[in-house]
Amino acid sequence: MDSLEKFVEISIDLINTVKEQETKNIKTLAQKIAESTMKGGIIHWFGSGHSMLLTKEVFTRAGTLTNSRPISLDNYLGKIERIDGVGEVLMRAFDGKPGEVLVVVSTSGTNPLPIDVAMIGKERGLYTAAITSMDHTSKVKSNHKSGKKLYEIVDLVIDTHAPFGDSSLSTPDNAVRFGPLSTLSGVEIVHMLTAEVVDRLVANDYLPPIRMSRNIPGGDEHNRKVIEQYKTRIPELIY
């Protein structure tokens, strides 16, 4: 079996593991998001480095919740995620409200920036969740001044089950490791979460604020109506 086939098999096994082991926590988080959404709340997302990809996956994308807002400085975050105090500065402009939800994505769960974001969000009364790799974080030390890791701070942990070092394959001599998985399982998690939130909103006769593709008939009109609900809190949504 070549590396391509191995990677596909490993990826399928990973998705099945997420389904089997993380569905309970995903449903718990979905309930918190649904409750906040029905009260007019928004969902705050944070990730730095490659973890930022998940915050982009849920923002202004067709089929996702319109009330999602990333906390972001885009590409600068990867360069400064290991510097103490940056998170405190970033969160000065944070407008999260008690009862809303903050999801922090970090594969290692050890760098100061995502940990600070989670700490401050929790201090402000938000329900905090982490999407992280427990295999990785259990094998490394925290870089945060508190000595704590992300999973030790948040209210809920969802494990990506990505392997240590985020590499699933290696060359025959083990000189090179490759085949990252954290984004694959992370994306599966966020869309499982969306699916569950939609079910819970529908069960409560609440119209899910889902964004439609702008490239289908009626898409723009639908989106503008939904954006009206959130344009004050998420001005970036405005066309």
Question: Notable features of this structure?
Answer:
alpha/beta, Rossmann fold, two-stranded antiparallel ribbon, 11% strand, globular, 239 residues
What value does the average pLDDT take?
93
The CATH architecture classification is 3-Layer(aba) Sandwich
CATH class: Alpha Beta
**SS strand fraction:** 5-15%
How would you portray this structure in words?
- The chain has helices at residues 3-38, 52-57, 77-80, 86-90, 112-123, 134-137, 182-203, 219-230; strands at residues 43-47, 68-70, 101-105, 127-132, 156-159, 169-170, 177-178.
- With 239 residues, the protein is an alpha/beta fold.
- It has a single domain, classed as Rossmann fold.
- Strands 2-1-3-4-5 form a five-stranded parallel sheet, sandwiched between helices.
- The radius of gyration is 18 Å and the shape is globular.
In short:
With 239 residues, the chain is α/β, with parallel strands linked by helices. The protein has 8 helices and 7 strands, in the order αβαβααβαβαβββαα. It has one domain: Rossmann fold, CATH 3.40.50.10490.
Indicate the topology:
Blueprint: H1 3-38, E1 43-47, H2 52-57, E2 68-70, H3 77-80, H4 86-90, E3 101-105, H5 112-123, E4 127-132, H6 134-137, E5 156-159, E6 169-170, E7 177-178, H7 182-203, H8 219-230
Parallel strand pairs: 1-2, 1-3, 3-4, 4-5
Antiparallel strand pairs: 6-7
Helix pairs in contact: 1-7
